Amino acid sequence: MLAAYAVLVFAFIYLPIVVLIVYSFNRDGVGGFPPRHFTLDWYRQLFSDSAIWDAVVNSLIVAAGSVALSLTLGLLAALALDRASFPGKALFRRLVLLPLILPGIITGLSLLMFAVFAGMQLSLFTVFLGHGTALISVATTELFAGLQKLDRAQEEASLDLGATPWQTFWRITLPNLKLSLIAAGLLIFTLSMDEIAVTFFLIGRDNTLPLEIWGRLRRGITPEINAISSLIFAVSVLLIIVWYRLRARSVSSAPQELLENL
Amino acid sequence: MYSRAYKAVIAAPPLLWICLFLLLPYGLMFAHSFWIVRDGLLVHNWNLQNYRALFTNPLYLQVFLRTARIAGSVTLCSLLLGYPLAYYLSFHAGPRKELLYQLVIVPLWVSYLVRGYAWKTILGSDGVLNGLLQYLHLTREPVSFFLYSPFAVVLMLTHIYTPFAFLPIYAALEHIPRPLIEASQDLGADRRATFLRVILPLSIPGLLAGATFAFVLSLGDFLAPLLVGGPSATMLANIVQSLFGAAYDWPLGAAISVGILLITISLLFLTERLEKRWSFR
Question: What is the ipTM of this complex?
Fold first, then answer.
């Protein structure tokens, strides 16, 4: 009974994705049943669609920038939460994590108001600011979990033997944290590539990939959208699985902590 | 073991960044909610007019109630799907547990848009579901109410947030010491009684956290109504989005956003208190 129910829930989670992928090979459009006439034409059309690939490049630029920004600040925040005590520490922790649980529209709009206030033009740069800032939350939780698992004795030994905190950071802490950093980077990269709610309000003239797809949905849809969506799904799943494996090696605990720490 | 200077150096950059790019923008949103727009221009004239409009205009109350209803339905459905799944994985999945766990976790992080779009192609009047129904001769005409209805929004958001609801429930179930369950059985309780009197009460903190995630995340959603909901499923965040777009009334939009923000934070706070009360750790 219970097992059958679990199968149904899995079907509910995965069936829509299966349908999406199947119809990316359907000659006659995104609907109808059964899908007839297998074709690769939609993928061919996709690969010669320069607007999509421009958007992919834009998304890659934003995602790379967001990874760099959020990992740097997230690492410092995690170190501070792990090692320092300062007034308002509990509040700071909550504030950093807030974008993880707040609706994207709140983060997006408040940054939009900030951009207007600061006289900034909306562009890929404002999108990067939005992603980078919101994803500090993910970087901080992930790296904090990594730091908690580190063997502190090595750092203490390094400091006792006369290394400066700076040297200790570069030679002990950072190398020990390498797997956590790569794992967190992959997760942040995926989330930034897929982000839509915050981007919606911060986008200028150049579209990211999700926004390019979003724009096309209003103009009548073809299985070309299924094709690009299938590719996005495949790449995201791959990145997430690598993240999960790396994480399992660096932090023994399961990723539910990420949400538990809220 | 570290000096004060070291601690200041590591804490300062994220602190400053968060203040500048998170706290200040939230503050600006708060400030906007007390301003007004006159003749298409923003006037920095502090007043409560926007909040008064929220409470007096019946349209906002109506949309608020609809939003709460949709978010409530999503929460209920996510728990109905997520809890049994978590229970099965934690107690009955055996050696496949880890694999099945990953199968739930992976879609949690994978594209919102891709999954929303999939539902659009399934539910549309010439979509996959209608095609299937006609193929099986269950219906003759396409059924048009699948797409562009509050039902479609609930379905899509349930699909997206079920893994979020599952996660804390599963964590809570995994934390239950197994000897407690054996003790319950040894003392003569059947499976039903063990579940109702041992497992369920101990999993309530996870249940609360899962419910809060599903509710809070759907409460501020504006993409699902645009994608599959249509006008009959307009939610609070859609009003905000149109006030920031064509309708051009940022202050009023900011006031609604502040409302969403306050509801979200109060719910998170409330859940935390309740979780502590129910927690046995």
Answer: 0.90
